[in-house]
User: Which sequence fits this backbone?
């Protein structure tokens, strides 16, 4: 008797664990939920990242979170397939002559996903919420810093932000200084309208549950099993619901590229963003494997406050010793593009042309001839007083371990060895890495930037001496002056001239070492039609269809 | 027995308090913070965040506030997963881990005990050798190998089993198997050696000599004594299957607590680190007390003091 009781007890302990699970039906993924949650219509199943940290538009700062926001929300303006700004919730908009007053005319009969009316007042609330320090929005200053009253709003009085709604369909923004790209900001997910009623009722947790997640975009969230999947279902109240062909988009929330690849191989996912790098070589010929450019650059920061890096000749030499073609096309499997400028592919100039094509008189700043570069690098280093690298202290290169970072680090070790300079690689854990870089507590380090909005200033600002992301602590009065002139200029063409001038200055000084331009590489079924990848790293599935 | 349990509970509370205190100060001493990203946020936004989560106060005050909250059952909000309460995160994710982990433990016991016994009873024969080889493999293969091979073979190549998620019973097969592989192998070896020990004892010869059937010998005398080391292992094993499941969770996309536990540390999500640590520490302590009690029932010679 006792014997069986003991065995029974041991089993009960284990079983009780299992049963704890079964009692909690609503929070655990239950068998039929996945199927029944999907509304009628075609379903697109995709993997674009892990469980999002937040999908509150004001709080999000991640690319995958931003991608989900463009499914759920409709900003004043939108970005189209050719990356042009088009009408969104506002059907037309105009700017005053001095460039300081922006007036947006909203469409009639806009509705929230719960069917209630959406007016210009909702935008006033949403934008002031982003400025409110209680919201602590990471992108607040980026998107609203130029609006009149920002300083007061950020200091604790959000109503000081000069955004008004003279009537239900007019939304007026007054800027403190001109901002040539403000239309792009009006299309930025942080400034999506959010529903005051649900936020006041649920607090910060409004964006964690489908039932309180009121939105106004083409899709609403019908189900969210954290770290498993999010179901976006077609929003019948969307202003342009007729042009939405999909019934639902199911996003698989995966962290592991092998898991994503497994889902792709079994056909359970029609698109995956995270392709294991080991598989890339074998996928080259596959017509469903895509490499599309992102707006952004992978670069190396040198700590300019250190004496050995204070001489632009040294920085030039270290830059010229890098064979970018080999790094991007061989070491990084060709999923990156070699970078010979700071601003890369797809960054738009004032007239819509490619900023890169107009830079440095149409020539890349760094020559593509690696052999000649290396000779020049040796010469420059000698001119700087370190012939053959003699007397140059060992460089410590800091990086976190993800993607190709370690491969690049090892390459730099070799490349700089050619100049007679020794390099040690220090791999730093992620959460400590960026604070270390920010504090200037490093010598050389991996760095990178992905654009928030397609304006050259978004990345050129990084080199302004007072910028919080100026990790190299580059400090050039000339550069700061050019950027200040650009910021104050209302004529787009003149402004563009200042921006080009700024890039000329920083590339001559080699304030950082560009290595490669970012791309997204992904697998997408050829059955998906009408979807596109934007250079912000977003996939526009909202207008997609699936061929039979 | 009651006195023993009361004593253990008091000790448990003390242990959890110590674990919480040490974790709190250790994690705040590790460089980095929860609000870091590739792009730095403005000083203003950083200050606003610190104020919102009470991180602008001295560490001692933060500790006092946190412990005070815990006493009132408030595990605070996650710093990274905005809007989520830590207790909600645990409530929604623990059941998933518990189901997977519990099933894995049951499977490990159900397979490991008979296999170990069979090996011991056939010592030196081919069955024994085969089982030893399998058990050694089970201990040597890391779980991600089992996961990946299982996923490739049964999920992708043969297409018999789904490769991710937990939406039907078939979804449980691969993750539960992967998670139970190591403990199963370990139990097999444990059971084999302790069974060998037992069947060599004098009372076993006596039992056979007095004419008991081999089955009765085995179940009534040998198994009951040989199982003791396995029971001791059940407590740590439960802890292992729940906290150690993060690799399996990641590969099979299972929304469990193990993944949260690990990612909260890399993210410096202080409140989630605290919440999960306190929760898992409590779980391990409770499991150990239960194991001690079960132990006493199986072996009356043991005194609980």
Assistant:
């Amino acid at each position: 008797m006792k014997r069986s009781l003991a065995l029974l007890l041991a089993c009960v302990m284990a079983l009780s664990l299992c049963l704890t699970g079964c009692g909690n039906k609503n929070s655990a993924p239950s068998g039929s939920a996945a199927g029944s949650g999907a509304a009628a219509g075609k379903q697109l199943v995709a993997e674009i990242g892990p469980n999002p940290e937040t999908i509150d538009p004001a709080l999000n700062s991640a690319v995958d979170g931003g991608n989900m926001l463009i499914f759920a929300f409709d900003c004043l303006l939108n970005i189209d397939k050719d990356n042009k700004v088009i009408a969104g919730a506002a059907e037309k908009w105009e700017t005053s002559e001095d460039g300081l007053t922006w007036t947006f005319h909203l469409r009639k009969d806009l509705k929230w996903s719960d069917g209630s009316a959406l007016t210009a007042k909702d935008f006033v609330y949403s934008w002031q919420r982003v400025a409110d320090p209680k919201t602590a929005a990471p992108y607040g200053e980026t998107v609203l810093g130029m609006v009149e009253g920002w300083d007061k709003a950020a200091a604790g009085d959000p109503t000081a932000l000069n955004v008004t709604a003279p009537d239900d369909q007019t939304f007026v923004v007054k800027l403190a200084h001109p901002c040539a790209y403000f239309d792009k900001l009006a299309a930025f997910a942080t400034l999506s309208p959010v529903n005051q009623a649900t936020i006041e009722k649920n607090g910060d947790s409004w964006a964690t549950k489908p039932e309180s997640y009121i939105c106004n975009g083409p899709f609403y969230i019908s189900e969210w099993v954290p770290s498993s999947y999010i179901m976006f279902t077609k929003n019948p109240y969307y202003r342009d619901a007729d042009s939405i062909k999909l019934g639902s988009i199911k996003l698989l929330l995966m962290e592991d590229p092998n898991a994503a690849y497994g889902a792709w191989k079994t056909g359970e996912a029609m698109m995956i963003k995270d392709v294991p790098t080991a598989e890339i070589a074998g996928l080259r010929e596959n017509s469903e494997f895509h490499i599309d450019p992102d707006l952004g650059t992978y670069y190396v920061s040198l700590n300019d406050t250190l004496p050995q890096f204070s001489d632009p000749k040294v920085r030039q030499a270290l830059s010229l010793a890098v064979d970018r073609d080999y790094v991007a096309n061989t070491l990084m499997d060709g999923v990156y593009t070699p970078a010979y400028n700071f601003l890369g592919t797809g960054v738009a100039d004032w007239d819509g042309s490619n900023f890169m094509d107009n830079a440095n008189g149409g020539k890349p700043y760094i020559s593509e001839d690696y052999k000649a570069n290396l000779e020049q690098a040796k010469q420059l280093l000698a001119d700087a007083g370190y012939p053959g690298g003699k007397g140059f202290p060992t460089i410590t290169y800091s990086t976190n371990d993800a993607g190709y970072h370690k491969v690049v680090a090892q390459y730099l070790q070799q490349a700089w060895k050619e100049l007679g300079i020794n390099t040690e690689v220090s791999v730093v854990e992620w959460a400590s890495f960026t604070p270390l870089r920010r504090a200037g507590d490093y010598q050389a380090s991996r760095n990178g930037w992905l654009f928030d909005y397609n304006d050259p200033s978004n990345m050129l600002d990084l080199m302004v001496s007072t910028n919080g992301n100026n990790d190299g602590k580059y400090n050039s009065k000339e550069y700061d002056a050019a950027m200040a002139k650009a910021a104050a200029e209302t004529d787009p063409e003149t402004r563009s001239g200042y921006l080009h001038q700024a890039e000329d200055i920083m590339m001559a000084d080699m304030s950082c070492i560009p290595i490669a331009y970012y791309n997204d590489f992904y697998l997408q079924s050829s059955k998906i039609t009408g979807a596109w990848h934007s250079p912000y790293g977003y996939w526009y599935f909202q207008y997609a269809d699936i061929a039979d | 027995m009651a006195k023993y349990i009361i004593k253990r509970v008091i000790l448990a509370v003390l242990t959890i308090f110590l674990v919480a205190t040490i974790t709190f100060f250790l994690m705040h001493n590790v460089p980095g913070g929860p609000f870091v990203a590739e792009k730095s946020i403005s000083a203003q936004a950083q200050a606003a965040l610190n104020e919102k989560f009470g991180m602008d106060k001295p560490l001692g005050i933060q500790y006092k506030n946190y412990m005070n909250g815990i006493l009132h059952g408030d595990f605070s909000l996650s710093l990274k997963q905005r809007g989520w309460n830590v207790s909600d995160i645990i409530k929604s994710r623990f059941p998933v881990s518990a189901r997977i982990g519990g099933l894995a433990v049951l499977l490990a016991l159900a397979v490991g005990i008979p296999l170990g016994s069979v090996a011991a009873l056939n010592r030196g024969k081919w069955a024994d050798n085969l089982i030893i080889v399998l058990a050694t493999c089970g201990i040597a293969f890391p779980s991600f190998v089992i996961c990946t091979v299982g996923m490739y073979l049964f999920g992708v190549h043969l297409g018999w089993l789904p490769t991710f998620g937990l939406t039907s019973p078939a979804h449980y097969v691969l993750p539960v198997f992967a998670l139970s592989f190591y403990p199963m192998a370990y139990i097999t070896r444990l059971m084999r050696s302790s069974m060998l020990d037992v069947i060599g004892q004098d009372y076993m010869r006596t039992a056979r000599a007095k004419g008991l059937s081999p089955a009765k010998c085995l179940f009534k005398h040998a198994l009951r004594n040989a199982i003791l080391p396995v029971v001791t292992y059940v407590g740590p094993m439960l802890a292992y299957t729940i906290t150690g499941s993060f690799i399996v969770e990641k590969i099979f996309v299972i929304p469990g607590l193990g993944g949260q536990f690990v990612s909260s540390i890399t993210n410096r999500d202080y409140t989630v680190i605290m919440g999960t640590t306190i929760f898992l520490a409590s779980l391990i302590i409770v499991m150990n007390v239960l194991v001690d009690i079960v132990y006493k029932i199986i072996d009356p010679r043991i005194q609980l003091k």
Summary: Chain B touches chain A through 83 residues (CB under 8 Å).
